[in-house]
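for the recovery benchmark. tokens below, seq after
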């Protein structure tokens, strides 16, 4: 017996694949992805990251092959993270003109001039203590760290970086880097700020890949408390006022509400960083046969776009690009 009260037939638009495609609101494109790449010194190095199956550290000669594959898949942008041979208290290899990231950027831009090369601008991979700035009595000195971060950004721009992406979460880092870039003649190089970066447990595999775990303490004094929402507005507002051209929210999956909040209130392009722990969980479950990797990855990525991200920084980029190409997208 049919109900006597009126009701809507929403299922009419779900009846066939063609109808579902016609009314689909959110779409993923290969151009949405920014692919993280880890570079190291040496030759013939392609070190697998145990906690991130399918992700490697590359020496520059091996990097050429990786970039060939990335470009062949239609991925337009990569972000470089460097692991130097020598670390010290001030992370001097971060701002060295012949540092590993600087050379990776120069090589990749020569190889593919149209590839968008994003430089991660931080000190944690380069310091012997693993913190994102100058450590004094167990506490990161904000303003002294800004000086070194500015030097790092300028050296990366000189190497050919298309975008500077500071991830250190020091107060004033966008303003300091923006001023340094402008004074060095790089006023046209945008800043992709890690504006909203939480002190998350999801970063563990990255710290293995980048060899950047803190030697003492943690980063809770400069990264954000996962319990806080309004703090994200304060951070995004500061970076916007200081001249940020993009706003990154990191991590993505547990912070989709924050992505939507920032999307609703700011007009810069929004980048969701689908971080290492989020990647590792899916990979581990897929290897054990517990989930359908393609379906769960694509659902996860579409949720980030639906939440408001314009771009997604993700270790899944190559796999997702292959799946989209198979679907003719």
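predicted aa per position
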């Amino acid at each position: 017996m049919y109900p006597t009260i009126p009701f809507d037939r929403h299922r009419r638009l779900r009846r066939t694949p063609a109808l579902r495609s016609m009314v689909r609101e959110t779409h993923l494109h290969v151009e949405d992805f920014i692919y993280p790449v880890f570079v190291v010194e040496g030759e013939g190095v392609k070190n697998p990251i145990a906690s991130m199956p399918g992700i490697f550290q590359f020496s520059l000669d091996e990097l050429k092959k990786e970039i060939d594959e990335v470009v062949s898949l239609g991925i337009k942008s990569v972000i470089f993270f460097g692991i130097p041979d020598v670390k010290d208290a001030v992370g001097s290899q971060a701002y060295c003109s012949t540092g590993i990231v600087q050379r990776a950027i120069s090589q990749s831009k020569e190889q593919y001039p149209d590839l968008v090369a994003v430089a991660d601008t931080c000190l944690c991979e380069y310091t012997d203590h693993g913190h994102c700035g100058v450590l004094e009595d167990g506490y990161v000195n904000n303003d002294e760290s800004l000086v070194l971060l500015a030097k790092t950004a300028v050296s990366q721009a000189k190497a050919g970086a298309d975008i500077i992406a500071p991830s250190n979460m020091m107060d004033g880092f966008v303003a300091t880097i923006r001023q340094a870039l402008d004074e060095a003649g790089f006023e046209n190089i945008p800043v992709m700020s890690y504006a909203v970066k939480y002190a998350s447990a999801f970063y563990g595999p990255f710290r293995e890949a980048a060899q950047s775990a803190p030697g003492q303490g943690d980063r809770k004094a400069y990264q954000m408390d996962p319990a806080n929402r309004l703090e994200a507005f304060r951070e995004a507002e500061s970076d916007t006022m200081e001249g940020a051209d993009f706003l990154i929210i990191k991590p993505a999956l547990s912070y989709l509400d924050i992505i939507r909040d920032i999307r609703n209130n700011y007009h810069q392009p929004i980048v969701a960083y689908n971080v290492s722990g989020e990647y590792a969980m899916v990979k581990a479950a897929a290897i054990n046969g517990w989930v359908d990797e393609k379906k769960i990855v694509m659902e996860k990525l579409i949720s980030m776009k639906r939440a408001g991200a314009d771009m997604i920084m993700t270790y899944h980029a190559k796999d997702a690009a292959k799946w989209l190409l198979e679907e003719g997208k």
